[in-house]
Amino acid sequence: MSIDIAAALAGALAAVREAGERIRADFAAPRDVRRKGRIDLVTATDLAVEAMLKESLAKVLPGAAFLAEETAAATKLTGPTWIIDPVDGTTNFAHGFPFVCTSVALYDGQEPLVGIVNAPILGQCFEAGQGLGARLNGAPIKVSTVADPVDALVATGFPYAIREHLDEITTSLRAVLAATQGIRRPGSAALDLAYVAAGRFDAFYELALNPWDVAAGVLLVAEAGGRVTGYRPNAPYTLGDFRILASNGRLHGAMEKLLAE
To answer: What is the CA radius of gyration of the chain?
Structure first.
């Protein structure tokens, strides 16, 4: 299938912005908050936004598959696939904390073509197309130029299965806290990656994420001039890998060393 990346990006942007209006409308009073796991929540908004996006995106690229958080099954990335997280930061959403976004990406196999992270409560929409650069609300963005960890603001997150990975999480946290200017944990991996792309964070790392958490952000960082790998030195990253490290590129080697300690 031949894909017009610019057209797919434009169509996806329209769909994501429309879905963002539903999130804005529901933000003041989240409905039907349920648990998928011990600390993993889902709301009526998650389900409604996912359904909206599937309907709209099917018209943008007929025949493409879907991999979406709330209805994910055994879909494999073997052809054009829309990867959707309808509300990344559902716990934030349920508590009225505005660090909430929708993440939509178009991949062809493991190749990212389109990435959008829209934070409607914050009024920030990040977009990227393969070879087209990255933008925030239509203006070009680039990663930061920080080269020394002591000057770096780093983002991270904690997985829902935090008890199972607590030792690794705390070991990494201790190493990064001691070497950097600070760590932030806002609670949305998609927005963390978008903020790396925009130079607001200098690096981001996390473990046990799903493809829909990072698919759009990976392209945003790459198109903004940054780098994405696994934690370990020279470890490549593909969607579904257990660990992810994104940075402005200049910090990457230092961050790999910190996370390998």
So the answer is: 17
Q: 130 with 209, same domain?
A: no
Whether residues 127 and 184 fall in one domain: no
Give the pairing of strands 65-68 and 34-35. Answer: unpaired
Structural domain that includes position 163: 149-260
Taking the model in full, what pTM does it have?
0.94
Same domain, 34 and 105: yes
Question: How many angstroms separate the CA atoms of 109 and 97, rounded?
Answer: 34
Q: Are residues 123 and 14 in the same domain?
A: yes
Q: What are phi and psi of 174, to 5 degrees?
A: -60, -45
Structural domains counted in the chain: 2
Query: Phi and psi for 62 in degrees, rounded to 5?
Result: -60, 135
CA atoms within 13 A on the CB side of 52: 22
Distance of alpha carbon 216 from alpha carbon 212, whole angstroms: 8
> pLDDT tens across 217-241, in order?
999 999 999 999 998 777 889 998 9
Instruction: Identify residue 46 by its one-letter amino acid code.
Output: D
CATH of the domain at 250: 3.40.190.80
